[in-house]
Write a structure and sequence with these properties.
Two copies of one chain form a homodimer. By secondary structure, chain A is an alpha/beta fold. The first copy, chain A, has 16 helices and eleven strands. Chain A is 43% helix and 12% strand. The first copy, chain A, is globular.
């Protein structure tokens, strides 16, 4: 495809996307077709001769789009948001067009340096502790996801806990990781990948009211493990748990980690974005204790997947844990010690120029635009919660400090599961579920920049109507 | 940014990229500025108010582009190629625009089903063994990189070697991984991440002529470990090693793995693309022994980073090793067993819709177009090698079965390092180096779809001229 062919086809694809967004609200949020529908509409083998872009776009409309769950739909309220925005698309498009690979500073200096500066910009926006900045002992790096950030933090923690022996000698099975019973599944997955096994993770009791980790229970678990000859290596605390956006008490947890010399990783995958607003920074109190921290601009900060922002307080420890230097990567800049080689901050070797999408987003919106986006989500969630509070048939299952509301009918689990199935079955909205204190609970998460009051109100109307049907004998 | 703002800015960015490609040949391949040049040209903090896209594009030209190593430049001959193409950009742009997250089948069915079909298409194109296809016991998945594929293969191998105990109980430090001394650094990194430690990797001797792993040495290492009570868990064989594109003898290695019940992972990150051409499939002989296999469409198959194609022969083993199921991800489709949830095939939870770029590439080029691209690279490398052979001052350091040529001046290491520095210093070409049998060796890797005979000829002319200067007393 030569540059002129690309120009023509590119304009067509840009128009296709603009039209998709402009019509998104009128589409069903989720598909209704059974498994295999998309696959069976596609040829079993690739074409022998090339085809024009128009043929692919026609199949995109006919085959692919009808099989999508539309995550950018203003009435998508499932999971956590994975929102994106026009400037994010543009930045990522430039990244695709440049096609540079930033595994080393020398393999594209601007790719590394823009990333370092963008991570410092984000640290400034969230008011992170100074030691996380590149001007201090630490620094930030873009990971694909919070799962990978947790894995990388776990590896650095094991390296530290072993006194540096882990790198060559491998893991000691006595190492232990700690997280709340509401910690994300990626914590168990990271422990398993790192060789601790799921048995190596201690699930720590949470407060039944706040769903936040109980520091006394953490201390007790650490003491018990120490007494049994185990070695506490890492605590993962959460700001904004996946089920209910509970906030673990970092000041108390941090003090315990400091006392016992345990690595503290803070997972704020979803709720970290809230810290762009000064009035929501209470959630990050105690972060000065953390050895590492991450949040996902791809969840609630208008930057398309994948973009997890991960910081460490001591970059030297992380690099020492992960570096491998074969001859074919040796170069003068790396050996000078004056540059960052981000390959040593992550699992893969290769790196896409992901800082560009952050750059476009942060400049298009500015700090004020980002704050407005977060505040809008918080206000819409509060509006929905107000509707719930005013209806005796419903109850809130947890506090809603951010943009997630957890709730249920005052009825049994089966009735609540049926409620979710009915409102989702309309195709007008999409919500998901969790369990809180063992009970089936619906979740409504706001995050799309297109979501307005009318979308939240419609969700409420659908829920209230379905509740009426369900509760009528 | 509303859809109309996006449409206007999107056209501008498409034009920017088309212009970049059209002028790429006339730019220096690499930047010359010292570390910190880009960072110091950027503000230390993000803007408070938003800025227009035009301001960002102006800084892209003024600050970022001068700091890039241009990987898509027709005279970029470094490392392995990380080539991309117009259709790849368009497919990835659609992915950004849709912004769906395919962690589960249910979170966007078309995202999963198109990926399964694309992996089957690739399996057909490369003529992979039937058991790697989704219609057999196995199946394919897109990973970010071959590093992650090796890690995932290692984890599945450990799970198998432990009889299923690894998942809960963690790693047994007696497990061992085997690869040639020319195996990629990601194999050591994967072993380290998995908790084996770098000591858990046995580097196996290679044939000094072919740089291919010596099966007898592999067998001896396995026997020695077994005798010492160690447990051989995985062998990683390479089709197209990073230094010289050596091909490990899979038929013999596979037979040994079968005899001892060891997982065989085949890393064809770069050279796998060659198998689209029937005349190059000799390199894949013996692949029927493999438990897993990967290659990178983002290296030599015109698909932008990141896109590693990874297959397993038994998907059940992989899923069992990696699955974690929290309540918030439970859904009827997963529980039916009728769908694929790709989150269980990889390290992260979240997933971008990367199959779209493969779909656009495979349809735009067709099988014949992809073969023509690979054949062009092989022919250009052969053309360059012919120039070398005709000049007594130079020698080939290895065979060149694909599109990489390894060579040196008949002179000492310092002279060869100086030769590389001089030709790269012109800014007209970019080559990198390795060591073969301990000796400093230059590498010229062809891969960009824009590279033509004149670019390879210019590289030769620059090398020949620099050699003349260096060898003149």
């Amino acid at each position: 495809m030569n540059p002129d062919e690309f120009r023509r086809a590119g304009h067509a694809v840009i128009d296709w996307i603009a039209d998709y967004w402009a019509t998104l609200e009128h589409r069903p949020v989720t598909p209704a077709d059974p498994p295999g529908t998309v696959a069976s509409a596609l040829p079993a083998t690739p074409p022998t001769a090339g085809e024009p872009v128009g043929a692919v776009l026609a199949d995109l409309d006919a085959i692919v789009v009808p099989g999508l769950t539309h995550w950018q739909h203003p009435s998508f309220f499932g999971y956590f948001p994975a929102n994106t925005s026009g400037p994010s698309l543009l930045g990522d498009l430039v990244s695709s067009g440049l096609g540079v690979q930033g595994m080393l500073w020398t393999t594209s200096p601007a790719c590394t340096e823009l990333e370092t500066v963008m991570m410092d910009w984000l640290a400034e926006l969230l008011d992170l502790p100074p030691r996380f900045r590149s001007t201090g002992s630490g620094g930030g790096v873009i990971q694909d996801s919070a799962s990978s950030a947790t894995l990388v933090a776990t590896l650095a923690a094991l390296h530290r806990a072993s006194g540096g022996r882990w790198r060559a000698a491998g893991i000691d099975r006595r190492y232990r990781a700690y997280t709340s019973v509401h910690g994300h599944s990626s914590i168990e997955k990271a422990a398993r990948i790192a060789g601790l096994g799921s048995d190596g993770v201690r699930p720590i009791e949470a407060d039944p009211e706040t769903q936040a980790l109980r520091p006394a229970a953490l201390r007790a678990a650490i003491e018990a493990d120490l007494a049994a000859g185990e070695i506490p290596a890492i605590v993962v605390a959460t700001i904004g748990t996946t089920s209910t956006t509970a906030v673990d008490p970092l000041p108390e947890i941090g003090a315990i980690c400091a006392e016992y010399g345990i690595w503290l990783h803070v997972d704020a995958a979803y709720a970290g974005a809230a810290a762009v607003c000064p009035e929501l920074r209470w959630s990050h109190a105690g972060l000065e204790y953390a050895d590492s921290y991450c949040f996902d601009p791809h969840k609630w900060l208008l930057t398309g997947f994948d973009c997890d922002a991960f910081w460490v307080a001591d970059r030297g420890e992380l690099i020492e844990a992960l570096t491998v230097l074969p001859e074919f990567l040796r170069n003068a800049a790396s050996e000078s010690g004056a540059v960052i080689d981000y390959r040593d901050w992550q699992v893969p070797l290769g790196r896409r120029f992901r800082a560009l999408k952050l750059w476009f987003v942060l400049r298009w919106y500015g700090a004020e635009g980002l704050r407005a986006h977060v505040r809008s989500g918080v206000a819409l969630a509060a509006r929905f919660a107000d509707r719930l509070r005013a209806d005796d048939r419903f109850e809130l299952a947890a506090a809603h400090p951010f943009s997630l509301v957890c709730f249920r009918l005052r009825a049994d689990d089966d009735t609540n599961a049926e409620l979710l199935a009915r409102v989702n079955g309309t195709g007008r909205v999409h919500l998901t579920h969790t369990r809180v204190a063992g009970r089936y609970t619906l979740r409504l998460a706001v995050g799309s920049p297109q979501t307005a009051e009318r979308h939240v109100d419609e969700a409420w109307d659908l829920l209230a109507a379905a509740a009426g049907d369900l509760l009528t004998p």
